[in-house]
Write a structure and sequence with these properties.
With about 280 residues, the chain is mostly helical. It has helices spanning about 20-40, 55-75, 80-85, 85-115, 125-155, 160-190, 215-225, 225-240, 245-270, and strands at about 50, 50-55. A two-stranded antiparallel sheet has the order 1-2.
Length: about 280
């Protein structure tokens, strides 16, 4: 991320700690490698789960993780050495890495077996993996995002413009809170739909979101990516109108949260995001 501030303390210009940068960069690279492997394998895979290739879900998750860790890697280069070396920051990174590895390992293992990973309660083992391992990992990731956002907000020497800093803090916070609400509702059901989605009914390409009934995944998608959208809005305002960047970013965060909750309410009402 780029700052417009010319008064950044010299101490904050120190390069990010090699070990921590390598961790997030390595996780980003691993996520991209897994996504590429899944993408290359899909054309040769004939098995289907709910009508889609078994490796499509690992592909989507790998792309999502690459986006997450790529965002964190970019942010880390703008934090001061003191913030990066704090115990809370380092512990959060290790916990998020462990959650990522556990979740992707189970997703790929289940895909290789031709079995669903999510909403699979067919055996005590599958129920434990879905509710405890994947559920616990998801909580760790969500809380980790919020913690890192708070650390960035409190890091006064970070090389961040006012709008970008506000976008990071509010974007990371929004991702944490909104994802807890929406993913929590998802976890209580037996699938992503809030109505009846008949077999063969139309869906949005690639995403697979229902075109005929309520689907919680669009709102979940919006909640997850607040941590990218709002920092980018803040960065844009830092470049175009730095004096009003913070207030504009706060307004954008409010609008984004309302939009996400509106899409969530639409799904709960049984209406598709886009009728097909």
């Amino acid at each position: 991320m780029i700052t417009l501030s010319l008064s950044t303390p010299t101490a904050s210009l120190a390069p990010a700690a090699p070990g921590r940068v390598q961790l997030y960069q390595a996780l980003t690279a691993l996520s991209l490698a897994l996504a590429l492997l899944c993408l290359l394998w899909i054309p040769f895979e004939t098995r289907r789960i709910a009508g889609v290739a078994v490796f499509l879900k690992p592909l989507k998750f790998a792309i999502s993780f690459a986006t997450l860790f790529g965002t964190l890697a970019l942010l880390e280069t703008r934090l001061t050495a003191q913030a990066r070396q704090g115990w809370a920051y380092r512990l959060t990174g290790l916990v998020m890495a462990a959650a990522f590895l556990a979740e992707m390992a189970y997703l790929i293992w289940q895909a290789a077996r031709g079995e669903a990973s999510h909403f699979n309660l067919s055996t005590p083992f599958h129920a434990f993996m879905y509710r405890s391992v994947m559920g616990g990992g998801a909580l760790a990731l969500v809380f980790g995002i919020g913690i890192i956002g708070w650390i960035a907000r409190r890091d006064e020497g970070a090389r961040l413009g006012p709008g970008t800093r506000e976008g990071i803090w509010l974007g990371f916070l929004a991702s944490s809170i909104l994802t807890l609400i929406i993913a929590g509702r998802l976890a209580t059901g037996t699938g992503p739909f809030t109505g009846i989605h008949p077999a063969g009914a139309p869906v949005l390409p690639f995403f697979g979101w229902s075109g005929v009934t309520g689907d919680l995944r669009p709102a979940h998608f919006l909640s997850l990516h607040a941590m990218q959208v709002l920092p980018l809005i803040g960065l844009w305002r830092d470049r175009t109108s730095p004096l009003h960047a913070r207030g504009f970013t706060r307004l954008a965060a409010l609008v984004y949260a309302v939009l996400t909750l509106a899409v969530f309410a639409q799904a709960l009402a049984g209406w598709p995001l886009i009728a097909l």
